[in-house]
Design brief:
The chain has helices spanning about 5-35, 50-60, 60-85, 100-110, 125-155, 225-230, 270-275, 280-285, 290-295, and strands spanning about 90-95, 120, 160, 165-170, 175-180, 185-195, 210-215, 215-225, 240-250, 250-260, 265, 305. By secondary structure, it is α+β, with helices and mostly antiparallel strands.
Length: about 300
């Protein structure tokens, strides 16, 4: 068996080293991605849990203020109970020989509110407790004020309200939704995203953008397929989903609505709706039966899309 030339042996060693390096790199990449997949991002939770933001968003302003007051009272009560076991007569300088529990309540209220009238002065270990209590009071105050400020500045959850029904207009081969901006100002830079789940098709369409929507009732068209193309593919779980987002003053607002096939009425067009003057003079007509009738428009001869299955 002959010997290989030195150059050939060197090339083979170089090639083998390159292959080994490539294998190591592939192993490293696989290890890296396996490690990434072990994180919480890829782990199913034991159940759904509300986040702090979700809990806060469900509370109204009165409940938030009440919770803040209870936090103050609870903190004062806890400190008062602890101090009552630490011989308060020897740690609070005052003009009396004894310190009652009510005196402790008063002392802790003026401490947590950082008032400090001076009629009761802490000494010894009570100075440490007073500093801790004052810091807790500032934290509670900052938390409550920031949460209330956010609640005040954010638009209401139902700033936009929708009709109970969506519509499919035969003349235009379009879906139509009716909604009202209940705020006192225009919603600007509005984007409407939507799709109609037809059979197994979840195809979304490009969002529709408009500069603003006014305070009048909106009868909004969403162009789709002719009914002859929709009917053969209908499934009882099909639905129309619409999301709306925009700017309201200094805040961003978003909402959504879903209509099942039983909520989608088939109508010729929107001519009768657009002819109603109340949709353009909302503040004047909103509390009338006629306004309610047209906002939740349901013609007697209208067919529900669910009946076409």
């Amino acid at each position: 068996m002959g010997h290989k030339p030195g150059g050939l042996r060197a090339a083979e060693k170089l090639l083998a080293g390159a292959e080994e390096g490539q294998k190591r790199m592939l192993c490293f990449i696989e290890y890296k991605y396996e490690k990434m997949k072990s994180g919480k991002q890829f782990q199913l939770p034991e159940g759904r849990k509300k986040s702090f933001v979700e809990i806060i968003s469900e509370l109204n302003r009165k409940k938030l203020i009440g919770a803040g007051v209870l936090l103050y009272i609870g903190t004062v009560f806890i400190f008062s109970v602890v101090e009552s076991f630490l011989h308060p007569e020897t740690h609070i300088a005052n003009n009396h020989l004894t310190v009652s529990f009510l005196d402790l309540i008063y002392f802790n209220f003026i401490s947590i509110l950082t008032i400090g009238y001076g009629d009761l002065a802490p000494t010894g270990i009570f100075r440490v407790l007073t500093v801790i209590e004052a810091m807790a009071g500032l934290a509670i105050y900052g938390l409550v004020i920031s949460i209330i400020t956010i609640k005040v500045m954010l638009p209401g959850k139902h700033t936009i309200v929708f009709s109970k029904y969506a519509y499919y207009c035969l003349d235009d081969h379009s879906f139509m939704i009716i909604y009202l901006n209940t705020a006192t100002q225009f919603l600007t830079n509005v984007e409407t995203s939507w799709y109609f789940k037809l059979g197994e098709d979840w195809k979304t369409l490009p969002p529709i953008k408009v500069p603003f929507i006014t305070k009048s009732v909106q009868t909004f068209y969403l162009s789709f397929l002719p009914m002859k193309d929709i009917k053969p593919k209908l499934h009882y779980l099909d639905c129309l989903r619409v999301g709306i987002s925009g700017s309201l003053g200094m805040s961003t607002y978003s909402t959504f609505v879903e209509y099942g096939l039983s909520d989608i009425l088939i109508v010729p067009n929107r001519a009768e709706l657009t002819a109603y003057d109340g949709f353009y003079q909302v503040d004047e007509f909103i509390n009338t039966e006629k306004f309610q009738h047209y906002f939740h428009y349901h013609p007697k001869d209208a067919v529900k899309m669910a009946s076409l299955i």
